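In the design runs reported in the main text, the only information available to the sequence generator was the tokenized backbone. The following block is the verbatim input for one such run; it is reproduced so that readers can re-run the procedure and compare outputs position by position.
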């Protein structure tokens, strides 16, 4: 057992030596949640707004504001595209959510999503060199139900202040319509990170996992556990990239998806799920035991909790089975338990376990790439390009069963991803400002280095302080007491 170090490295080693793997896994979850609450309260959140232009004398106020700024307004009035260069719009993202499906915690009320949305903004700035603002909105109509049209109208109204919109934590089925309408009707890219971002990084992890087990994407049998926005989009991207839908089975809370699911067909709001019903599971398999027998891959984005995925299911899978248990904040099965049941490669959505397959690897670089070329939308091809970018980056530096994708501390992965996405946007004809791969990489790298250097400078000069050591030790002591029942 060791003390908590300020970098939060080797979390498992700070717990008592006699703890089991299960106790350590639960302990890390409790510790991170407790520390998160204390740290957010200590810092008052984790995002602030700061100027990026100097005030060299009194009259500079007249440049940045009136009367000088009048010229900015009239110039943009006459050419709206000038707003991308004369304001921060070209590098600014709105993170929009109605907070109806926050992580695995469900409806947290509109302000309840702020922690996650500010987290998105934090990662965009530090990892992608992109500014972002959290906008948690109330989407309820007069009948008290969450109305997708209210989100659509909100985004349409505010799109002229931003270069892109990142949708987040919107419950299904509303999330499908919100994304599909806004992708077509907005003049800037609208991206649903829970769906497209998760799908992109999952595809990247799957591509490298298959390389390690010597199997082809077109040949493997895949079972999807959970049929929300994430898994339905993951399936769509895998199919688009060469996976065989006839070798796929997806499960929702009522059973397997297939062409006989009249309940899904009858509710037009679930049209994305019905597409999966039509494309996959031609034999109309109904049980998990039948579907998982001999399956090569299990991809789960379902109910959080270590008993959601059963060890007995994994024991039925093919040799060198691949298991992605990516529910947050707690995976559907802990990695040690999945490996004990025979899984060869296990991934989760968490950074404190090996193989973090999480959209945090995707959205900073993807949005940066889209912003650089002023894309009008983010196509599925752009998401697939990002997936291959991530997979190739990891493969070049070396992969193994416990390291199939890059991690967030590999800084260069994000400008590489941004450049690959920017080039694909040009190929897809959605870029307003075409540029070469080298140009996109150079700009993205410079912006990301600027963001990281700014945070470091604020820290080095005492504007951002270290968390108190007592807070870290308090979190550890509390966690140990919780696990040991003291």
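Verbatim output:
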């Amino acid at each position: 057992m060791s003390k908590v170090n300020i970098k939060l490295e080797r979390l498992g080693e700070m717990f008592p030596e006699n703890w089991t793997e299960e106790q350590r896994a639960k302990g890390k979850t409790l510790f991170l949640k407790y520390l998160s609450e204390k740290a957010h309260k200590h810092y008052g959140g984790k995002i602030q707004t700061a100027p990026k232009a100097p005030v060299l004398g009194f009259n500079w106020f007249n440049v940045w504001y009136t009367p000088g700024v009048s010229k900015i307004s009239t110039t943009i009035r006459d050419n709206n595209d000038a707003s991308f260069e004369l304001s921060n719009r070209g590098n600014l993202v709105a993170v929009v959510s109605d907070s109806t499906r926050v992580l695995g915690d469900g409806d947290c009320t509109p302000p309840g999503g702020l922690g996650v949305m500010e987290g998105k903004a934090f990662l965009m700035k530090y990892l992608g060199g992109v500014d972002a603002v959290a906008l948690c909105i109330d989407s309820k109509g007069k009948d008290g139900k969450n109305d997708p049209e209210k989100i659509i109208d909100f985004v349409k109204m505010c799109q002229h202040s931003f270069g892109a919109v990142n949708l987040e934590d919107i419950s299904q089925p509303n999330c499908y319509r919100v994304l599909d309408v806004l992708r077509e009707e907005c003049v800037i890219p609208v991206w649903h990170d829970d769906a497209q971002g998760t799908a992109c990084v999952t595809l990247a992890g799957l591509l490298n996992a298959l390389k390690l087990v010597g199997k082809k994407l077109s040949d493997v049998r895949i079972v999807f556990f959970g049929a929300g926005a994430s898994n339905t989009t993951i399936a769509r991207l895998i199919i688009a990239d060469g996976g065989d839908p006839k070798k796929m089975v997806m499960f929702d809370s009522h059973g397997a998806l297939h062409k006989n699911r009249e309940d899904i067909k009858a509710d037009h709001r679930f049209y994305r799920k019905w597409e999966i019903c039509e494309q996959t599971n031609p034999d109309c398999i109904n049980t998990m035991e039948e579907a998982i027998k001999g399956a090569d891959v299990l991809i789960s984005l379902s109910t959080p909790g270590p008993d959601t995925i059963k060890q007995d299911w994994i024991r039925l899978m093919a040799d060198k089975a691949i298991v992605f248990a990516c529910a947050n904040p707690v995976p559907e099965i802990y990695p040690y338990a999945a490996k004990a049941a025979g899984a060869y490669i296990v991934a989760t959505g968490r950074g404190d376990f090996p193989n973090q397959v999480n959209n945090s690897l995707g959205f900073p670089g993807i949005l940066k790439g889209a912003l650089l070329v002023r894309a009008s939308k983010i196509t599925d091809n752009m998401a697939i390009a990002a997936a291959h970018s991530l997979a190739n980056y990891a493969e070049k530096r070396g992969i193994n069963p416990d390291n199939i994708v890059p991690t967030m501390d590999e800084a260069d992965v994000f400008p590489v991803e941004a450049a690959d996405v920017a080039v694909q946007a040009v190929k897809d004809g959605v870029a307003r400002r075409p540029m070469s791969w080298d140009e996109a990489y150079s700009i993205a790298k410079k912006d990301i280095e600027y963001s990281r250097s700014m945070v470091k400078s604020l820290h080095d000069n005492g504007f951002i302080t270290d968390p108190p050591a007592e807070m870290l030790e308090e979190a550890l002591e509390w966690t140990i007491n919780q696990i040991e029942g003291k």
